[in-house]
Amino acid sequence: MTVKLSKKPKSPKSKDPYKRRTAPEMLRVLNDIEQGSISIIGACFKYGLNRNTLKLWKAKLAIRTLGLNRSASFLESMNDNQKLKAVNDKLRAVTRALERSELKVHALETVIKVAEENLKIKIRKKSGTKQSA
Questions:
Q1: Domain map of the chain by residue range?
Q2: Structural contact between residues 72 and 37, judged by C-beta atoms closer than 8 angstroms
Q3: Whole-structure pTM value
Q4: What is the predicted pLDDT for the residue at 84?
Q5: Containing H/E element for 75?
């Protein structure tokens, strides 16, 4: 005699796979899940979403709120000298990133120039050229 094991219910396919959900809709679904009023699988069935879509929304929300919460609470606990030092550090980091990106652009332009000279082909487009359809 064989016993069949019950399978977990699979996450449904999206009812509207190409419909874009608004931010309030996404937040409502995620809040329902966080409050414990509905499980992830239950939310998938109720709202007609895929489980991976919910995971993606959760990750996006976590990244968005992490930066906001951390910076606000972090700055509140500092005095004026510490805030000034933090801003200067951030400015130095942004300046270094800008310098690196400018160096990268210069290097890529040099590579294009050398390739055009050595291979005798035009890599850059003329400024007035229309894009092909």
A1: 10-77, 79-123
A2: no
A3: 0.41
A4: 85
A5: helix 51-76
